[in-house]
Amino acid sequence: MSLFDHYEPDPPILCPKCGAPLTGWQGKDVHPALFVWRQGVAAPVDQRVDPEIRALPERLATLRVSPEFWIYGGECECGYHFDGSRFGVRCTAPDGVWRTVEIDPPPTPARDAGDGWLQCSECSDVWPRVEGRQLYLCPGCGRLTQLAEGDGAG
Fold it and tell me: Higher-confidence residue: 2 or 99?
């Protein structure tokens, strides 16, 4: 059995299939011990272990993530699982506090095609835009796409 930590991006990464938050992110940083890390918080916010083996609060308060780490395994209630074989999620903590989340390699750009439609820059297929959503699965080629910056994102 191998230990890992749990990660909670804030704001959450949204499902490209339905738009709900992806949960269940895991990773192995410097000291995986079932800690729960929340973006923007310096120390772990929890440890998912039995109380008798939980780290002391004063010890938890001293722990920090690495300056760069990767998380995997986001999943959604709709059945979507983030494809860790094609994408990773790179996180940075330049000052010991988890600050950024970036999908790597970056999703394929989708552009606003007007009249409530988006278009894949790879295959040119179009689909309806959902207000507030950034990530989508292209129905034509199945690629993970993201609304291009400056193209009506919001």
Answer: 99
Q: Are 93 and 66 in contact (CB under 8 A)?
A: yes
Q: Give the least confident one: 14-18, 31-35, 60-64, 85-89.
A: 85-89
Residue 149 is classified by DSSP as: T
Q: Are 79 and 57 in contact (CB under 8 A)?
A: no
Amino acid at 12: P
In this predicted model, which residue has the larger pLDDT, 153 or 76?
A: 76
Residue ranges covered by each domain of the chain = 1-105, 108-147
Dihedral, 97, 102, 103, 108 alpha carbons, nearest 10: 170
Q: What pLDDT is recorded for position 44? A: 95
Alpha helices in the chain (DSSP H): 57-60
Q: Say what the pTM is.
A: 0.86
* 3-class secondary structure per residue, 10-31: CCCCECCCCCCECECEEECCCC
Q: How far is residue 111's CA from residue 114's CA, in Å, rounded to a whole number?
A: 9
Total H helices, total E strands in the chain: 1, 12
